[in-house]
Amino acid sequence: MRFIRSGVGAAGALLLSFVASVAAAQTPAQNPAQPAASADQFGLAPGAPAPVIQAIRVTGNQRIEPETVASYLVVNAGDRADPQLLDVGLKTLFNTGLFADVSLEMQPDNSLLITVAENPIVNRVILEGNRRVKADKINEEVKLAARAVFTRAKAQADVQRIIEVYRRGGRFAATVTPKITPLEQNRVDVIYEIDEGPKTGVAKINFVGNKQFTSGELRGALLTKESRWWRFFSSNNNYDPDRLEYERDLLRQFY
Fold first, then answer.
1. Total-model pTM
2. Looking at beta carbons, which pairs linking 87-91 to residues 24 or more positions away fall under 8 Å?
3. Domain span at residue 93?
């Protein structure tokens, strides 16, 4: 016996269905082939022998020491500038999350120039619009914090975490908009503007495949009730995903 959430109506109410069995086919995701690194990507002549790196220089860094930036490469001065190895180093630098942009380019004097643009540092994280949920509860889920390295991916992940907090409280219409305020010294304030929306009620509870008991009898066995105006002060007509497993147990016991 499974719950199926059939959708949210105009009034912010969910339609729940109970189904005896559901079969789903899953197609495994296939990773696309990665293109090979090209020589001209790094300022090298295609088809020519890879030159020996005479020196490694770093530009664009503000907080991070040049030695730290260069340490993420898999080549050193004295090694040949193999495009595949340079590509590995480029991806490694990006994957640190420290940089918004990185480029590697061989210079006419056979030095390797690493140009970086550092990601900013978070000055503070601000919540706006949260009236139904305390800031402490949201901050327990948010990962960005003061002095952390800011990336848009981290901010977007926090948006999803905040939305999940509201979903667990039955507010499926909640939205979160991240806003970034640049400050001096490559710092930012991160502001999460929250529109909490109304609580999501249960408009209808349907049963599929029930023969021994009527739908009305099965509804009576559940803790969750359909939204009605006379249940204004009840929380049992709000959709609560954490309650679903308990409702399944109630149906099993009823049968």
1. 0.64
2. 87/37, 87/41, 87/42
3. 49-118
